[in-house]
Amino acid sequence: MEQKMKQIFQKYFNEIRNKYLTQDSTEGTLRTPFENFIKRFSPNINLIHEPKRVSGLGAPDFKAFYRSRKVGFIETKDLGKNLDNVLESEQLRKYTESINNLIVTDYARFILIRNGQKIFDFNLFTLHDLDNPRFSIPDDKIETFLQFINEFFNYKLPTISSAEELARELSRKAKLLKDLARKQLEEDLREMEHGNSPSSIYDFYEGIKELIKDISIEDCADAYAQTVTYGLFLARKNCKNKLERRNAAFYIPKNVGIIKKIFINISGDAFPSNISWIIDDIVDILNSSDVEEILTKIDKRGKKDKDPIIFFYEDFLNYYEPEKRKHLGVYYTPRPVVNFIVNSVNQILKNYFDKPMGFAEDDIHVLDPAIGTGTFFWIAFLRTLKELKEAGLSGLINEKIENHLLKHFYGFEILITPYVISHLKLTDLLQRWHYRFKEKDRIQVYLTNTLEPTEVHGLLPFLREITEESRIANQIKLKKPILVVMGNPPYSVSSSNKSKWIMEKMEDYKKELISEKHIGSLDDDYIKFIRFAQWKIEQNGEGIVGFITNNSYLDGIVHRQMRKCLLESFDRIYILNLHGSTRKKEKLPNSVPKDENVFDIKQGVAISIFIKNNKFKKEKKVFYVDLYGSREEKYRWLDKNRIESIEWHELEPKEPYYFFILKDFSLQEEYEKHWSITNIFRQYSSGVVTGKDETLVKFTMEEIEKVWKDIFDPQKNLQEIEKKYGLKNTTAWNVSKRRKKLLVEESFSKDKIMAYAYRPFDDRFIFYSNFLQRAQKRVLKHLLRENKALISSRRVNEKSFNHVLVCDKIGDKHVISDQSYFFPLYLYERGKVQPNFTEKFLGFIKTKYGASLMPEEILYYIYAILHSPTYRRKYEEFLRYDFPRIPFIDDYGVFKRLVSLGKKLVELHLMERRLPTKVKFDIVGSNVVEKVKYENGKVWINKNQYFEGVPEDIWNFYIGGYQVLSKWLKSRKNRKLTAEEIEKFLQIVEIIKQTIKIMEEIDKIKIV
Q1: Which of 55, 306, 676, 756 has the greatest number of CB atoms lying within 10 Å of its CB?
Q2: Rounded to whole angstroms, how far apart are CA atoms 658 and 561?
Q3: Rounded CA gap, 804 and 795, in Å?
Q4: 416-432 and 217-238 are packed helices; what angle lies between their axes, rounded to 10 degrees?
Q5: CB–CB of 412/450 below 8 Å?
Q6: Per-residue model confidence as pLDDT tens digits over 297-309
Q7: Helix (H, G, I), strand (E, B) or coil at 177
């Protein structure tokens, strides 16, 4: 070992020892000796220290350079600090997940971490060695350290040539950028409280808040991280040389002030250094990547449903935040869907609006009110440019781009990331067609809330840009004549878009629904966007709407006024129902083995094309077709077809529902003569919504008592309750306010712990309090005393109607389906007990049968009717869309027979007596429900144990949306069945067996 090298090490050791002996060995005081030590190894080595402004906010302590090339980072800790614990800290975890080449040291122990993995971990010396004045660092330690330091400084970012690898690397950096941006925002808010100026990231936050009033700091930081990361990716694509943070703005479209402002901010000297370092790291990753080649490879994947820029964005989201990837439909619509809509609208323009060149005609103005990443315009632009080329008009392309595509196609977007992507993607497309953007050219996509046409006003730089965007956007919203509105509006029932402007227009969809109790689904954003589009076309006097949306409006009961309004407004309506719901258990055609959604969502979707054109001379028509099948089959079909190639079924929507679906309603007149259960019973309501079933619904009284004693404990703050039980504020349930009110108005009492009808034959326990999200006490209070209640549903999403049950206690909203309604038999009012029947119905019964009937007899009769297989089959279509209607037969003797059979069913379902059973549970074991499966009469609960003697028709028996036996057992997964539960399961098997027999007896009686 060379003497000079040994002296370098010994000098470092002595300097550290002197600081240690004088008790001046903090992380900060040892940095200078450490920095000098590292620099002595080579004149090409440089370390730059940038102190953190805020604890936990910023880069590691040193950036390390070799010949001006950044190689990595070094994080220093106090001498003797337990580095194993440090590596487990949140700060270091985020560093190791995001930084490719990192040293962590306490000045004595050195750890090299490469892409999250330890490469070196050794002690150059120990604290014990520092107490020894004669200690010198051994040669083998010096050799190891030299290997260590060479490994660190020789590191080079590998060339990245695959989309997956680049997406993974960028996502690692973006996650840390999001965290740093969040911390910076929190620091900015603290600084402003003391009158200090915030960073440019705060400007971004204020600007986004103008558009999304309730955006959280977390969501804003997320938007910032995605926008910067993806913007840099696209800047790198446009940069032929080396991209730098300081020159990134040069490669961003000039005339989009918002995007430009973001990238001018990150390039300036005033940009926070505690964040700039990770942006520099992102730039380094991009410079080591062949972005053009990566996009070319993506384009060759053969994916017809995506453009390369979006395909890469999906890859990025998959690593950055997989949950966001699942909901990419917020931003992106599959290309075959867009192809169908764009091609169809293009053809309609030619056929009915005297536009022989379709979208290429100069007087067509097009609006996408929720443009997302710009796929609709991407396809429309391509369609236009290709048609011009195919028509031998290539010489017009530049002029059409400049004076038509860049002037008459308008897009609105409320989310900054897709807004940025749409601009850069559409700009890129036109550049590929050799268009050179001029100084004042821009894509007409604006950052704005479509449903709130109010202008933003602000003095902050970023707000000024949004102010200008909102001014232009509002001119388009309110005044610009639009011939085509197309796109994929967002779906959100719990919408925060409730501006006076759009809510006034929504009244047209609600004005005849005064008697409806649950019209909240009409406030879904997609319905507001349909109303907005309808208004724009009405404003123009003619036009086309082409949307893909949630398909619930096609046959929803509360959507009937909406359908009526659309029928009045448009002359032709085309509905392509793409189905794909995982919530509805729809009957499929025999030739279709499975049905999948075109999106990764649960809700079924439909393409709707509405046409308003005076040429149709008031001959209003509605056309409909179903499309079932796998996702790929639907994509292929959509790519091959357009509106004129389809064999449409003409519908005849009739009052009162005006359904936009293909169904047989020939029995409607007959069915509507029968008594709706809502006209029989005076009071009814849906069941209880707890807000958090896993916490507030329990199998035993002891479990529920423990939870509620904590909730009632004034010594426990809300944060403790939230952490322990997951009870937190939501848009529908303000837990903090409810708890404050609870502690003032209620007290804990075991008397409030009630048996609770949770699922079919599955009673649990609940503490019945106004603290619950919806206790429904107005009606369900009548079930706290001796009573019975019919349970049914208004809407059936499953294959067939079997949505009826009875109970003698309060119950859950989902007891038999998504929306279960309770109809008590008796009401306890003003000290009296009286039947819960309407006066009109009681008068009918007296006239019909001329006899005094007990309320129970009426309940039994209704229960029997609702269990009639013939009744269910005959009125299947009507039972799917509204509360059941009950036929009352003329023959009193037959009426009484049905009462008798209904009584047997009610007694069975209330489990009023124990039934003999032949089902066995004969194998000794753990009794733990692990995996439930049915096989040859056996219901297995784990590898060894099963219930034997369960016929297949009993196993497959449904009540509402639940396969009763399967649901009952699966709800107890990983629980040990008690003796009482095993006995109850045996009873349920027998109850279903007897139910099937009684239903067969009922079916022998001619009812309808």
Answers
A1: 756
A2: 8
A3: 12
A4: 10
A5: yes
A6: 776 654 444 567 7
A7: helix
| φ and ψ at residue 102, rounded to 5 degrees | -140, 135
Question: Which two tokens mark 135?
Answer: 């200690």
Stated as kind and residue range, the H or E segment containing 624 is: strand 621-626
Predicted structure pTM score? 0.80
How many other C-beta atoms lie within 10 A of the C-beta of residue 917? 16
Look up residue 804 and give its amino acid.
V
Q: Tell me the backbone φ, ψ of residue 131, rounded to 5 degrees.
A: -85, -5
Distance CA 984, CA 119 (A): 59
- The tokens for 148 are 């260590």
Q: How far apart are CA 859 and CA 788, in angstroms?
A: 9
Contact 463, 207 (CB under 8 A): yes
> What is residue 486's three-state secondary structure?
strand
Q: In 3D, which of 433, 452, 624, 604 has the Cα closest to residue 525?
A: 452
CB-side neighbour CA atoms (13 Å) of 155: 23
Cα-based angle 667, 669, 674 (whole degrees, multiple of 5): 95
Digit-coded pLDDT (tens) for 710-758: 999 999 988 899 889 999 888 789 999 999 999 999 999 999 999 999 9
**In three state form, how does the secondary structure of 368-414 look?**
ECCCCCCHHHHHHHHHHHHHHHHCCCHHHHHHHHHHHHHHHEEEEEC
* Rounded Cα–Cα distance for residues 688 and 811 (Å): 6
Element housing 273 (H / E): helix 273-287
Helix (H, G, I), strand (E, B) or coil at 744: helix
CA distance 863 to 790: 8
Does the domain at 3-153 match CATH 3.90.1570? Answer given as yes
Per-residue tokens: 157 = 């970012």
Type of residue at 381? F
Quickly count: other Cβ atoms within 10 Å of residue 539's Cβ: 13
Distance between alpha carbon 985 and the CA centroid of its chain, in Å? Answer: 36
> In the chain, which segments carry CATH 3.90.1570?
3-153
Take residue 154 and report the two structure tokens written for it.
């020789």
Q: Which amino acid is at 171?
A: S
How far apart CA 910 and CA 783 sit, in angstroms, is 14
Q: Residue type for 35, please?
A: E
Instruction: Give CA angle at 521 (518, 527), nearest 5°.
Output: 145
The model's pLDDT over 202-257, given as tens digits with 9 standing for 90+, comes to 888 888 887 777 788 998 999 899 989 988 988 898 888 899 998 998 888 776 77
Strands 484-487 and 445-447: unpaired
Q: Pull the structure tokens for residue 683.
A: 């009071």
- For 890, 899, 992, the CA distances from 998, given in Å and listed in that order, are 22, 12, 10
3-state SS class at 417: helix
Residues in the chain, how many? 1008
